[in-house]
Amino acid sequence: MENDEYKSVENNEYKSVENNGDEFYSNAVHYWSEIPATLDGMLGGFGFISQTDIKGSKMLLKQLFNSKDHPGRDYALDCGAGIGRISKFLLTDVFEKVDMVEQNEAFLEQAEKYLGPKFSKIGHFYPQGLQNFQPEEGKYDVIWIQWVLGHLTNKDLVNFLSSCRCGLKKNGVIIVKENITSSDSIEKDEQDSSVTRPLRHYHIIFQKAKLHCYRQVKQHNFPKGLFPVYMFVLKPKEDITNSCSETNLILENDGVCENIEPNSEKNITSDLEKKIELTRVDDVEAPEENSVKDLLKTECIST
């Protein structure tokens, strides 16, 4: 049944990407090579949404750390890190150390200056595409993946998520934050060589990677006209003893976003109509300017 569901996402649009994987990746490399290493560049001209985005992510982490069997706060991995926006405003505020993986070396070079004093919390830089990256086994409490999975083929996405699963510590989680199509079809962006997937496809891919969607929430207060954005908290299937048992731990009065039980796919359409406004979130720290650290580790750790 699981394989049949996975095959159902392999429509003609996906096949054109899968069959031309090398071109798909090289086109993306070319696109990002021409993008400035700035906040606005990382967000496609929508740099002004960064604060709202970070607020929603902070609330999710706050609720996650208040839950039973929550992850530790020692080590996080920022995937598709760019110049370090998420590392700077989110992950370094929560974790003792953060690794960053980003295939564009120019972005990583800018990251030291951009992160300022928070660069002291950066462990390693890995200048690689996610399709080639394999996290060190059992290293991370949280692996954060945002606005980058559209650059992976289905096959490479399943393989990458599977390797991330092996990179987690006990009680560790993978958090995916991505654009989602409003329909049941993918949308291709020829300009940056990416795809935007529907909600159902992500759930099928998570299952294929042996990950359980423990929590799913929707980001709000983004400008109209943008794709819906969802956050998924994923755990290895072997770590789950009671499916969706803690989905009611979302704090309703804090209402960052709605909470949907991932296994209730029959109710997804109606659930998506719910609107809960973003409220009571912590302020985001102002940008910092000074660099602190000059040590850069570039080799990949393989298992």
From TrEMBL:
Matching InterPro entries: MeTrfase_NTM1, SAM-dependent_MTases_sf
A Gene Ontology term for the protein's cellular component: cytoplasm
Record key words, sorted: Methyltransferase, S-adenosyl-L-methionine, Transferase
EC code: 2.1.1.244
SUPFAM superfamilies: S-adenosyl-L-methionine-dependent methyltransferases (SSF53335)
Catalysed reaction equations from the record: N-terminal L-alanyl-L-prolyl-L-lysyl-[protein] + 3 S-adenosyl-L-methionine = N-terminal N,N,N-trimethyl-L-alanyl-L-prolyl-L-lysyl-[protein] + 3 S-adenosyl-L-homocysteine + 3 H(+); N-terminal L-prolyl-L-prolyl-L-lysyl-[protein] + 2 S-adenosyl-L-methionine = N-terminal N,N-dimethyl-L-prolyl-L-prolyl-L-lysyl-[protein] + 2 S-adenosyl-L-homocysteine + 2 H(+); N-terminal L-seryl-L-prolyl-L-lysyl-[protein] + 3 S-adenosyl-L-methionine = N-terminal N,N,N-trimethyl-L-seryl-L-prolyl-L-lysyl-[protein] + 3 S-adenosyl-L-homocysteine + 3 H(+)
Catalytic class of the enzyme: transferase
Alphabetical GO biological process terms: methylation
Transmembrane domains' residue ranges: none
Pfam families the record matches: Methyltransf_PK
GO molecular function: N-terminal protein N-methyltransferase activity
Protein origin, superkingdom: Eukaryota
Family to which this protein belongs: Belongs to the methyltransferase superfamily. NTM1 family.
Protein name: Alpha N-terminal protein methyltransferase 1
Lineage: Eukaryota, Metazoa, Ecdysozoa, Arthropoda, Hexapoda
